[in-house]
Amino acid sequence: MRARLITVLLALAVAVQHVAAIKCYQCSYSGPLGLQGCEDEFDLTDNRYVIEENCQQCSKLKSVLNDKQILVHRLCLRVSFSDNGCEEETNNGNSVHACYCNKDLCNSAPRRTAGALLLISVGYAAMYLLY
Hints:
This protein has about 130 residues and is an alpha+beta fold. Helices cover about 25% and strands about 35% of the residues.
């Protein structure tokens, strides 16, 4: 009986997925005439943000309205909303770029992929020239 109880408890322990709480930046920016300090190019020395704890996922949402006004929101999500990564939706001159991540303070910087693509391209070119 005792061995069966231990086996059941071990099976439950393996089956339950533990999700560690993380910290996320939380702030909002609403364009040149609105709230400052949470722009796309995030200034960590500005201190116009809050560090939220006990988050399951961090997010950064960047909205462009009528091709000009930019809104940026960095958020602490108490439940996982999406897979890690970014997605973008555009409609009639309005766009929303949403990124989700699950490491401490991972919603600080704009997502940069051009540098990684350039590095990969240079690596492939070097391999092609050398071999």
